[in-house]
Each structure stands twice: as structure tokens, then as C-alpha cells.
User: What shape does this take?
Amino acid sequence: MMDKMPQTPPFTGVFPNSAYNKNLYQTKEEHYGGLYYHDNTLVSGSLEALIQHLVPTVDYYPDRTYIFTFLLSSRLFIHPCELMSKVCHLCVDHQRLSDPQADKMRLRKMAPKVLQLLTEWTETFPYDFRDERTMRSLKELTQRLASGDEHYRKAVQQMTQAVIRKLTALSQYEEALSKISATATERLAVLKVKPQSVQRDILSICSDPFTLAQQLTHIELERLSYIGPEEFVQAFGQKSQLDNDKNCFSDHKKASNLEAYVAWFNRLSYLVATEICMAVKKKHRARVIEFFIDVARECFNIGNFNSLMAIISGMNMSPVSRLKKTWGKVKTAKFDILEHQMDPSSNFYNYRTALRGATQRSITAHSSREKIVIPFFSLMIKDIYFLNEGCSNRHPNGHVNFEKFWEMAKQVSELMTWKKVECPFERDRKILQYLLTAPVFSEDALCLASYESEGPENNMEKDRWKSLRSSLLNRV
Assistant: This one.
């Protein structure tokens, strides 16, 4: 029964430095034609052999690291709905589950293993089942498993309900994002027509840096939680000549939650710059800068590196950094420390060290508060992008370069652990609403506001100012 199944480990720590350890449950499948090992590590294989290696048999169950890595990378070569169809075929025909005369004992041994594989797939890659074809294959296979046993029927029902819940939550999240976007656009339109109509600024909404850092962490963790691991692979999914120039993802948006998260980073950077440049008085501008420095420091302490970097980016935008008189009134020692932590030199060495420290804290944590790790997301994408670009997906003989995908899965699986953390802080709807919908200036509007706060200092700035003012007048 299910409780007699070999237990696959959780994600944390399952990808050792030597990439992949063969698991205890392998039998003859490790010699299946088309799989190649080096020092007990699976390094390459034909797509068919890798699919075969995914499917359990009476005396074999694939390691969880293999399941995750293959499901993550396979979509570069085969659409999830085709893969599910092949898995069904292998389970039903090869294991003779369709044979009414099949040995009942064999069926009892096979059913929980197939069910566990499907559970791992639906839990980790639920968005694959947004495609009706994938869902249809899943239902066909699970009906066969459930037909003879009440215990399996119940487990199948729970699994199906769980995936439907996740897909419903995703649809609701997408709807909420689209409403937030519409409200933000509306508020910006109002600001353009009546600049005095928006009197509020961030300090009138929240004057406590710790509270603001907590609310930023809410937004970060929520947006992170909806990113499917497959989006990292789909974002870079290149058409391969070895795959008949067929793009597996031409029929749907490839990485929309990942894109929404990157858009949030950009919004926060521009919001910080807007709040600073919007302040009319120098003293108030300096206060806003110091406030954001304190917010950034609190983000660092929480382990929210993404908001921290967005705030630093906002303060380093030229419309803000050129405000020398304003910066003259700011105590910059704390800002210098934060900039040092996020210094891009030596491939962000300081940040990577801080991230390792936060990761270590997270592993040994006793509370949700200590478990929070929100990486600087754009850098993480860049790391995965370079890994993807640096090695080919296939070897010249057409075999899948599995060594590359172990490394990619290792990076993505870490994020999978971090995105499951429940935010322990109390939500403040008013602050969240402001952060998500307050008007944000464009680059031109920021430059104009900056020149109006502290006039142009050289001919280049004067020309830019004239050009911005005349284009603004023409628009009016």
C-alpha cells in the first residue's frame, strides 16, 4: 500500500555537488539501452530511454531528483501533454495494467508507484495540467488505477482535487494582477491630468521602515509562490534543429508569472525614484531617501534581497543620483554598507555570500520568519540563462545532455524550497494597495521632476530639460 512505498526525499539538500546519486531502488533499468552513466551519475541518454527511466515498474521507482530534473527539462524536447500520453502508454501497455487477466498482486504493487509518480508531477508542475489534453491523459490513467480498489480511488480523488485547487488559485491570481494593473494605469492617468490630485506619498501611508519591509516581503512571497519551476526552462526554450524546429510552447504564454515578478521589481525601483523626485522640498526628499535606506536595511535583515536590490536600483537611477544638494542632507553611511553588500563586482561576490548565509539560516530555522530567503531574482534568471546558453541541450549523437539539466534543476529546486515559505507578517491592505497601485513616473517624467527639484548643471542636462519640457507641452 501507499505507506510501504520507498520515500523520496524532500527538495532541500537532494542535489549533492556530485550532481546525481543513483538511488537504492534501481534494478536492471539502469542498463536500459540509451542511458549513459559516468561515476554512477546519469550524464546523457536518448529521450525514449529517459522517459522509460521515469516510469515505475514492479521493482523500481525513480529517484525524486530524477523525476524533478526530467520533468523540468523534458519540455525542451517534448510537450508535457505528449509526455503524459507516453507515460500512460508505458504504464498501461508495458506493465499490462490494461490486461483484465493481469496478476492482482502485480497490479497492487504497481498502482501505488504510478500514483506516487503522478502525485509528484501534479504537485510540482501543476500548470502542465492547464492543458486539457494532459488532464485527460491523467484522468484516463488514474481511472484504471482506481477501478479496483477503494483506497486508490480516494487517493486519486485527493490528487485531482489538489491540482484543480492550484489551477483555480492561479486563475484568481492572474485576475487579481490584471485588476491591480488596471488600477495603477487609471491612477497614473489621473495624475497626468491633475498633478495635484495625488497628495499622498509613501511617508503618509507608512512611516515605519520595518512595517514597509514586511509588506514588501508579502508581495515578494506571493508573486514568487505562483512561479512554476518549468517557467525558468520555458523562458529560454530555444527551437532545436534536432527537435524538427518544433517549439513546444508556441500554443501558450511561456513564463507569465516569471514575467510578472520581474515587472514587480521594475515597478518597485521606479516607485522609489518617483517618491524621491516627487517631493517638492529638499528636506522632504532627503527624508524619503533616508526612509528607503532604512527599509532596504530591514529587507536585508529579513532575507528579502529582491526588494533590497530594487530599492538600491531606484536610488541609483540618474534622476535620483544627480540630486547632489538633496544627497548632501542624507546620512549615507548605511546606504554605503547596503551598496557594498549588493556590489556587482566579482560576480556579486558579497551578495552571494549573504545569500548563502540566509540559506543556511533558513535550513536550520525554527520559525517562518527565519526561513525567508527571497533571492535577487534577475541575477538568478541570469545565472540559469548563462548555464542554458553555455551548454547544448543535446550531444551530437542526439542524446539529451542530462549533466546540464542536473545543474539547472539544482538551482531551480532551491527556489522551490524558498517559495513555499508562508509570510509570517500581518498584512496591511492599505500599504499593499499603495505599493501595488500608486502612480509611477516614466523615465522622462522622472528626469523632468529631477530638473525641477535641482536645475540642470551642464549643457547636456539643459538640452535634455528643454527637450523634455517641449515634448510635454506638445503632448498637452
About this structure: The longest strand covers residues 41-45. The radius of gyration is 26 Å. The longest helix spans residues 150-193.
